[in-house]
Amino acid sequence: MSEPATVDTPLKKLVGDKTAKALASQLDLHTAGDLIYHFPRRYDERGEHTDIRSLDVGEQVTVLAQVQRTAVRPMRQRRGNLLEVTVGDGSGGLLTLTFFGNQAWRERELRPGRWGLFAGKVTEFRGKRQLNGPEYVLLGEGGEGEAAVSDEIEEFAGALIPVYPAAAAVPTWVIARCVRVVLDTFTPPEDPLPATVRASRNLVGLGTALREIHRPSSKEELYRARRRLKWDEAFAVQLTLVQRKHRAADWPARPRPARAGGLLDAFDARLPYELTAGQRDVGVEIAEDLATPHPMHRLLQGEVGSGKTVVALRAMLQVVDAGGQAALLAPTEVLAAQHHRGMLDLLGPLGRAGELDSAEHATRVELVTGSLGAAARRRALGEVASGNAGIVLGTHALLYEGVDFADLGLVVVDEQHRFGVEQRDALRAKAAQPPHVLVMTATPIPRTVAMTVYGDLEVSTLSQLPRGRSPIASHVVPAAEKPAFLDRAWRRLREEVAAGHQAYVVCPRIGEGPTSEDEEPPLDDNGRRPPLAVTEVAPLLADGPLHGLRIGVLHGRLPADEKDAVMRSFVAGDLDVLVATTVIEVGVDVPNATVMIVLDADRFGVSQLHQLRGRVGRGSAAGLCLLVSEAAEGSSARERLDAVASTSDGFKLAELDLEQRREGDVLGATQSGHRSHLRLLSLRRDADLIRDARAEAITLIEDDPELTRNPALAASVAALVDEDRAEYLEKG
C-alpha cells in the first residue's frame, strides 16, 4: 500500500519525476499541498455549452465541445494534408481545429458525435475562430494514439468535469490525473477552523471540502466545498487585519489636539468658500483621531474634485498648531509641485513664515523633490530639520537619507496605490514615535475592497462635490467604424479653444519604446498596432487637425524642470492643448480645461478613465470627455468604454473595474511577489461571506488576540496570508 501523502509530500514521490518537473516549472506546484490547493477554474458538463462565441482571439482556452464534422484537404504551400475538424458547443458557436500532416488515425478518432476537451490559443482565419494543433482528450469511448482517454478522465465523462488553470505543456487533464493520484493517498491536515465557527456558519470539514472541490459528487456538494474554502480565505485575511488593528490600538503616538486661535482657525477664516457638509464631518473625525494617544490610520476616499486636499491641509495645520510637522507624499513631481502651489495659494501669508508679509501664526511650506538644485536642497532640508517647515511636500525624495524631521506628527499619502509598501514605511520610520497616517485616494473603493484590503483602516468618504463644479459629458468615438466622428472630435476641441478654453489629449504611451508609464508593450501578440504615443501624436496634431494651436507635451521621461515649465505654461493659459500620458491622471487642477480626448481609450482601465476625465470640468464651464477607440461594437473593450460614458458615478465604475480585475491583484498577490493561495474569494460576489468572516474574526481576536489557543488556525492563516502579504494589507 502507498505511503499516505501529506501537504508537504514532494510531488515527484507521487506523480513521477518528469510530470513533477513540468508542474514545478510551468505552474510553480511542488508539493501535494500545492496541487490540492490548485483549484479548478470552472466545471464543464456535457450538454452545457462553453459559449465559443465569447472566446477572445489570443486567449489560451480549454473548451468542452462536440465534433460536428471533419474535412481533409491538401496543403497549398507544402506536401501533405490538412485536417480540419469543426466542433460545436451546443449553442450554435463553432470552432475549427486544424492539424497539419498526414494523421489518418486522428481523423478516425475525431469522428462526429464525440465529445472532448480541446486546449489551445484562439486565432482567427477568414473570420472563423480556430485552434491550431490543439491538445485534446476525448470523453466516453477510448481512442487511438496520443489522445487515448485516461481512466482518470473517463469517470468524469457525463459528470462535472474540472477545468484547471493550466499551461501549454501541462493541460488540464494531466493536472486532473495528478490530482486523482494525490487524492487516493492524501491525508488532509487537521481542520484549523474552530468547531464553534464551523457549526454556527454551517461549514463542511476541510478534508471533505478539498476532495469535493476536485471530484464533486454533486453540484450541491461542490457549492458547499467552495463555500468552506472561500471562508478560509476570507477568514485568514480578516483575522490578519483585525489582529493588526488590535495591536495598533496599543501603539503609542503623540496626541495632536486642535488649538483654538491657531493656524487652523486662521485658515478657516480666510477660506474663500464654504466647506461642504462632508468636508466638515470628515474633518471632525480626523481631528478627533489626531487628538488621541494612538496613531490615526485613516483612509480618505472621495470622487475626483470632492475636496480631499483641503481636508488633508486642515489636518496638517492642526498638527502644526500642536507643535509637530506634517508631510505629504505625492506619486509624481508634477503632482507634488501642484500641491505646493495650491497650498501656498490657499494659505497666503499663513504659509510664508519669516517673510515680510507673513501672518502671526505662519509656518513654512517646503517642496522636496529629486530635481532640486544643490543649494535649494540644502536650504529646504535645513528648514525641515529645524522644524521651521511645518508642512513638507514631496515625492519619494522625502524617503532618502538626509531628509530629517524635527517632529513628524502626520504623514499624508496621496494616491496610495502608486507607492510600494517599503516607501510608505520608510517615511513613517522618520518619526520618533509612529506618526498619524492619512491615506487619500480618488479611486472609489467598493465596500468589500475597503473591508478586505483596507480592513485595518478607518474609512471616511467624501461623496459630495463642492459647489461650482460643472458636469462632465462623456462619449465614445468609434474611430474605426465612423472616422468622421474623430474628425468631429478635433473640430469640437478647436471650438472649445476658440471659446477661450483649454484641452487635454491623452495617449497610452510616451513613444520610442515602452516605459513604466506605458499601459501595454508597443507590440501586441495578436497583431494589433502599437498603442498611440505622445511623441508621435503631438507633431501629427500640430501639422494636421490642430494646426495653429499652441500645443505642449508632458510625460514622465521629461526632465523635472521641463515638466514643471510645461505645466506652469498650461496653468497660465500659454498653451491651448496639452498632449500627455497618464502623468496628468491625479491632482492636476486647471479650471480652464474643458475638453479631454483620450486616444486608444480601450487601453486604459475603467477607474483610470474615470480619474483622467476628472481633469476637465473643474471650473464654471461644463466638461467634455471623448473616448476614442477602434474596439469593435459588442466587444468587451467597447462595453467597458460604453459603461464609463454612461455614468459619472465612480462607485458604480469601481464595481465594474473590480469585475474585470483578478482578485489576487486586489488582495496584493502581485505586490507580495509570492504565489497566492487566495484563489476562490470574489470581492464582488462574496460580500456577505466577507462581512460574516470579519464579524467572527473580531469576536475571536477579542477573546484570543494572538491566537495562542488556536495554534492550528494561526498556522493556517500564516500559510494563506504570508508575512509579505500581511505587511501589504497592514500598510496598504
Automatic annotation (TrEMBL):
| A Pfam family | DEAD
A single GO BP term for this record reads: DNA repair
Give the Helicase C-terminal domain ranges. 485-659
Keyword terms, alphabetized: ATP-binding, DNA damage, DNA repair, DNA-binding, Helicase, Hydrolase, Nucleotide-binding
Domain of life (superkingdom):
Bacteria
GO molecular-function terms, A-Z: ATP binding; DNA binding; DNA helicase activity; hydrolase activity
Helicase ATP-binding domain sequence ranges: 289-462
What protein does this entry describe? Probable DNA 3'-5' helicase RecG
According to its UniProt entry, this protein's organism is Micromonospora profundi
